[in-house]
């Protein structure tokens, strides 16, 4: 299995709010026992059959966990956990290695990059020990992607470069092409358009040679976004058109819609509003028809922006209303899930705390009894000096036990407050006051820019800010660019220093 990063079809321009980058997954089945049937229904059906060997159960549970990674990673982890429980009884390093790769991806989709990176490192060491070339490649790829999402571009390049090098040596053209695409994405984040384009051109040649349609379509789309960003609109539209043909051929609806939006954004950047409106409307109708909620949010955002550019405020208003209905439904689903997770953690912590409290109380009683016994023994054996030393010892131990008990109470109280905070919708920011920042600068920040600045003060990464504001990463970059310009700074660090000094 290989995880791929790519642009799902929207222009990476900082000027337009609907720009975004998505995470794609592609599964390559190397094990002949599951290669014949890769659909979710067939995998679930096979897993439910009686008489399966433990090895088949592990293989199928791991495969299902991989399939669920992008859409329902929590459920994917449950199937992987079932496979783990079987492997605890019947260890098998080869099966465990495949399981670790799938597990790291599920945690990555949950934005738990710390856990994902740790598991991928474990998988990398095991793959080197077992000399498993495929797992070694995928571990490098996963590490590169996770470091990219945490904005550690140096490590991201390190692991993705090694992924590409090993893919080339192994003559694994599919992984090689996608690795080049991922390196192009890193170059985009680092602002090197020329290097980015070079990676995509190389990837395009590879995908054309092996006739890999989806990879070629994404690469053409990536190249188009570069030409849009550099102002070569004719070239951009040519590549978008070629990508559109491919995605229509392979029936990739989401990608087809994203190409339409990329074309619309390119026309919008040229000031060709009517063409942009036609394409954006077609994209929105397509994702609504197929109930692709997240894509509906992006397409609506793009179309209402086009309406505003044309002065069609009535249409823009009506679209914003429906846009927020979809956005709120997605938000409510995430909040419900987050509350459920916190409630489970709270109940678990509460039970553990109660058990710990009982243990502490019992220890205190034992300490008290022991103290009394030792005082009596001390009086008869070594006298007052030994008694004094024993008293000091148990006094310190009592203080330590009391401190542990108090710490447990503090932890419970903090968790209660966190649940109340999420249920009430209140945000917790840093102590630094930024609401009055507009009084100290010539060009005031917009409400959206203030929201983004507050999230920066919390130490949020661009991806987390995008998720919090329900906009694309490129929209976040657009806001950050405006913030930096208005504050007269060059990056996040200088922005933080400016706000702290000003307050």
Number-wise, the strands total 2
Main sheet strand line-up: 1-2
Sketch the major β-sheet. Answer: 2 strands, antiparallel
Mean pLDDT: 80
Strand content: under 5%
| Morphology | globular
Spatial extent as radius of gyration: 28 Å
Helix and strand composition category: mainly alpha
Helix content class: over 70%
Output the number of helix runs: 21
Spans where pLDDT lies below 50 across 5 or more residues = 1-38, 418-430
Cα distance spanning the termini: 50 Å
- SSE run: EEHHHHHHHHHHHHHHHHHHHHH
Would you give an account of this structure?
It is globular, with a radius of gyration of 28 Å. The N terminus is likely disordered. Helices cover 78% and strands 2% of the residues. The protein has 21 helices and two strands. The protein has a two-stranded antiparallel sheet. The protein is mainly alpha-helical. The two termini are 50 Å apart.
List keywords for this structure.
503 residues, mainly alpha
